[in-house]
Amino acid sequence: MSTTIDEARGAGRRPGDAIFKGTAVGAALVILLALAGVAVFLLYEGVPGILGAREETGSSFVAYVWPLVYGTLVAAVIALVIATPLAFAMALVISHYAPKRLAKPLGYIVDLLAAVPSVVYGVWGITVLGPQLVPMYRWLAETVPWIPFFAGPASTTGRTIFTAGVVLAIMVLPIVTAICREIFAQTPTLHQEAALALGATRWEMIRMTVFPYARSGMISAVMLGLGRALGETMAVALVLSASGVITLNFISNTNPSTIAANIALRFPEATGLAVNILIASGLVLFAITFAVNFAARAIAGRSARRMSR
Amino acid sequence: MTQTLEKPSASRDAMPLSGPRLPAAAPYVVGVAALAVGVGVGLILGGGVIAMGVLAAVTFIVGLTVWAWALEGRRGGVDRLATSVVWSAFLVALVPLLSLVWTVLSNGLPALSPEFFTYSMRGVIGDEQGGIYHALIGTLLITLGAAVISIPVGVMTAIYIVEYGRTAKLAKAITFLVDVMTGIPSIVAGLFAYALFVLIFGPGIRMGFGGSVALSLLMIPIVVRATEEMLKLVPDELREAAYALGVPKWRTIVKVVLPTSLSGILTGVTLAVARVIGETAPLLIIAGSTDSVNFNLFADRMQTLPVFIYYSYTQPGVPPEFGQERAWGAALVLIAIVMGLNLLARLVGKIFAPKTGR
Fold first, then answer.
1. In chain B, which end has fewer C-beta atoms inside a 10 angstrom radius, N or C?
2. Alpha carbon of A289: minimum distance to chain B alpha carbons (Å)
């Protein structure tokens, strides 16, 4: 509709329109350029690192980055295993269980969790959470050492990858909760009332109407949380005492590092080729998070189309 | 109720219409009992507060479920189980928040003093008075720089997507790219700014403006998303009325569409600032760290609050207590700023809400 008006008036008579539209298109192109820039500059600075890794570290780039990728994935998976059920429960409380008057303040409180800067989470993780978890690690190492995750010997400081995963879980929680809350609240009221009218209990109503409706949204919320957990830097850099090994043992003093934490710890002192290697590892992280986010959006988009039909 | 069940139901009137139900006070009764069990067993066997809490929670869930199962049947029991598990999970998730707020308050409050806000860390050793003045200045300037870049770009992009490109291919591509941008890890944004500035200024560059560039990469998608949502809410009737009066499209946008959605846009921008002001990783990489005040965004290292917290905590100096106390103090200030911005965002949304006339 707007195009017909523009055409009828003619471009020449309204220079203001042309200038304004040009600015808007320009801003949109800036975003295009910025993203292209991220890929191009990281590649430009990172490729020398990939090629030259052997002379700097004595092994190939893949051998350098693989333990970091492993650590990144392990920390993110621990975080999600903890955060997912909690986030679903929190979202359900806010959307369905809490009384209407209480639901809004509870939502604010969850948003407050998101407002705390990550470096503060990291400092809290070292001083409070880590020491609190040490007795549990000791107990696990004594009781179930035949489970590879808890083989021990237990860390005495609590600065393990499991602690890092717990901190990440707390940071991911508000994001997943916020998305799930929205989707749960969008469940058609008629479906819910129909279920209740047929005599379903509240839990049966949620299982039969809310979860089926929200399933793809819940999956994409978890994937977005995964993307966040993969890229989170400071909390892990502070909490983890990393030694760059690949191990299944979650509670000992020797832990795998993550890509982001490794960059944050090494970058300030790095020079020359070491910088390029770190940038190349950042490129790997970018690729992983891009893939995860892309998958999340694809799932959400597919369900949006299914719903609109 | 149970009496009617025992009688042979002679007439329809005697048929119960509802099954047996737990009394309304049941959760509270079980809760008190579970608390007593948890604390009691904990005191006898000697366990910590956490162990007591876990025991009480488990007792509560099991107790209420079993009671409901016995009285209301399997479905009632499962419903009670779900309710209590969901609520306990919610409370469990709040524990870290409370613990964190308490830790930061109790450790950070002693550090606060007027000098803490007006002194920098230049030449400060041991217990000498040092402060976060340089970090406050750096955070303020770098965030301001990021806002100056992001707000025009973000708002204009949203205008393009909503007002000009509803069907264009470019608009679809931009929407997708903004989604991708939301997922960029903050440290990658820092690396990007570094890689860009290295090309211009040579290796080892540290500059406050680089931090602004990195932060704006994180901020733009938030601004675009918020503005887009708000512009979409503006009813088409308003635009059509303006066109009918012969108002050019750009004046319609500037004078009609933007004022209508101003409150929402301001709220979104404030929330975006609150989101990036606590970012550490990109600033660690490109803005670096220093003990002195630096007002120049375009030269030399610049200290910021999050980076100050990180270094004061990990390299507190000798003895470590003073550095760590300053770290907690700075953490308290940073959290207060972020919460303040969040409150401001809600307030702004209320104040600038469009006047409906009546």
1. C
2. 7
Sequence-separated contacts (24+) of A293-297 with Cβ below 8 Å: A293/A223, A293/A224, A293/A227, A293/B179, A293/B180, A293/B182, A293/B183, A294/B180, A295/A223, A296/A219, A296/A220, A296/A223, A296/A224, A296/A226, A296/A227, A297/A220, A297/B176, A297/B179
Residue of A269, A117, A260 whose CA lies nearest to B187: A260
| Cα-to-chain-centroid distance, residue A33 | 25
Is the ipTM higher than 0.90? The answer is no
pLDDT digits 0-9 by tens, B131-176: 888 899 999 999 999 999 999 999 999 999 998 887 788 888 888 8
**What's the confidence (pLDDT) of residue A306?**
59
Cα B115 to Cα B129: distance, rounded to the nearest angstrom: 7
Residues of A in contact with B84 (CB under 8 A): none
pLDDT tens digits, A18-47: 888 889 989 989 999 998 888 898 898 888
Q: Does domain B133-351 have CATH number 1.10.3720.10?
A: yes
- Within 8 A of B178 by CB-CB distance, chain A residues are 31
Say if the Cβ atoms of B183 and A285 lie within 8 Å.
Answer: no
3-state secondary structure of B186: helix
What DSSP string describes A22-47? Answer: HHHHHHHHHHHHHHHHHHHHHHHHHH
Searching chain A, which residue's CA lies closest to the CA of residue B73?
A201
Interhelix angle A15-57/A61-92, rounded to 10 degrees, is 130
Provide, as residue numbers in chain B, all residues whose Cβ is less than 8 Å from the Cβ of A97. Answer: 83, 86-87
Domain with CATH 1.10.3720.10 in chain B: 133-351
Q: Which two tokens stand for residue A48?
A: 């020398």
Q: Which of A239, A233, A257, A245 minimizes the C-alpha distance to A72?
A: A257
Which tokens go with A71?
A: 């650590």
In the structure encoding, which two tokens stand for residue B193, read together? 């700014």
